[in-house]
Amino acid sequence: MSKQKISWQQELKQALLNIGIESELYTSDSFLLLKFRDNDALYLNLLSIAVHPGSAETLVLQQEYTASAKQLIQLWEDIWYTKPAQVLSRISALMGKNQRVHGRKTSVVSITQPEADAFLKENHLQGSAKARHRYALVFAGQFIAVATFSGKRKMTRRQEDYTSVELIRFATADGFTVQGGLSKLIKHLIKTILPNDVMTYADLDWSYGKGYTKLGFELAGQIPPAEIWLDQVNNIRYFPHRLPEELRAATAQLTEAEKMTYLNSLNYSSVFNMGNLKYIIPCN
């Protein structure tokens, strides 16, 4: 899906400038990075589909930045092309450019799955996902934040009547940061359905989970980087076990090298994520 070799990186840089964010591209070993004029603690690692470093090398780079109290975001070419508005919104929020609204000025309402889908498709990098419980924060007559949760799941290995709920998605409307917004939505959920804990995952491509820690979540584990196959024709990402059934069947007996060659011939490219951090907050 590459156009010119650095066209998407230059396009990103110009798009940031158009919303008042000055940045600079530079190289470090095999990486092409972007730094910001007004924030020396935030960096982007720009990963192209055709040629990119491996996950192990990228993980080492991320750990080096973390050790220096710097956040390194992993931005893939396909994510920029398919979700440019969401990427710019997320960066703008991290740069402190958003309008701030305090959660106490908002009200909590239950919303339908289609309403959650519409909001999250527009405002979350991963789009929407099916959820049992869906809530929005309303300010000045509009939704400015949405959180979705699973139903209660029995955790009998903890104790017979122990239940846990997953926070599946949280997003704010473009241009808004809601101070205390996620906390307000979680507290509403806890009061409504009374789980023993709420758990969630921080996407290490974009977050180190500091926001969850501030809310009282405890780090419960880490999921390592994962291989992903990108269908470049339709711009769809698949974990290996979720590839279309016909592709799983066709590659079941192939070596890794043979599988790579076969899928590449069908315009599938191998990419990866940096894994996830698992967080849990007790409710009692």
Q: Average pLDDT across residues?
A: 95
Described by strand count, sense and barrel closure, the largest sheet is:
8 strands, mixed
**What sequence of helices (H) and strands (E) makes up the elements?**
HEEEHEHHEEHEEEEEHEHEEEHHEE
How many β strands by DSSP?
A: 17
- Termini separation comes to 49 Å
CATH superfamily of the largest domain: Gcn5-related N-acetyltransferase (GNAT)
Q: Beta-sheet strand percentage?
A: 35-45%
The total number of structural domains is 3
Category from helices, strands and their pairing:
alpha+beta
Low-pLDDT windows of residues = none
- Tell me which CATH architecture of the largest domain applies here: 3-Layer(aba) Sandwich
Percent range of helical residues:
25-40%
